[in-house]
Prior knowledge:
Layout: H1 2-19, H2 25-55, H3 60-89, H4 106-131, H5 135-163, H6 169-172
Helix pairs in contact: 2-3, 3-4, 4-5
Amino acid sequence: MNKLNNSLSILQFEKVIFSSRWALSIPYAGLTVMLFVFVFRFFLDFWKFLGVALSGKEDLLVETFHVLENVTICSFIVVIMLGGYATFLRRPSKRWSLAWLENMSTFKLEVKLLLSLLSFSSVKLLEVATLTNDPIIKIYIQIAFVVSALAVAVVSKLIMHTASTPETADDVSLDSREI
């Protein structure tokens, strides 16, 4: 009888721990608000971009980077929200509307997150490159782009190598539409 009570209390403890994951819904609701704020900022920056484009000012490239920055931040937030929801919040036993996310592994989400971060960093580097006249800074920025491209190539090679292993092929295979 004591073993049964012990097993029941362990089950109840596990249930409480598993249910506590719903506390994450509060930060994810905050991320949703942040997403809408950046969508609003996108429209403000896009309106400013149109004004610069129509006026013929030379700041067109800088304004383009501001618009791209908002888009990449929005994408970054969405990747974090979907990945966190799939990993922590969704109930494993229920059918849900984002069925495509069920087949996505944590590895795929990490790669998407890293590529989103790389995309955001690239936009910021391009903006700095257009605003500076220092050739040394421009050389460092070019080196950063080359290193980033090499890193993406290495990750892609690792993905393809890992996907060729039969036991992990379903878990890590990425096609170009997923990246």
